[in-house]
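Technical note accompanying the year-one report. For the benefit of new consortium partners, we illustrate the data format agreed upon in the data management plan: each record pairs a sequence with a structure-token string. No post-processing was applied to the example shown here.
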Amino acid sequence: MPGTLEPKLDIAWDSFHQNFFSNIPVFFQRTRLTGGVPLVYVLRDCRVEHPAPRRAILLAALVQILLLLIPWPDLQVSAKRNPAFDNTQLTWSGPVTIFRS
């Protein structure tokens, strides 16, 4: 039909593709605020309304430190040596099948 727009199904590869380096200048831009806007409303999505639970944070930090410092009695640093196997030699006489495809 004459005069109708056809949908664009192709990708404009020549257009600007945004990546990390294109965002660096935006990070250093300063925003101009009018005098009547309080700073509380500028970062309203980022603010913490209640004070941080200091006792809970301190307790969590202490538990983490204690878990690192407590020596575990069942933790074996090295394998126990069994003297019954001192003169034992292990050999394999069968075919090696792991290298066949």
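Partners are asked to follow this layout when depositing records. The CA atoms of residues 50 and 83 lie 63 Å apart.
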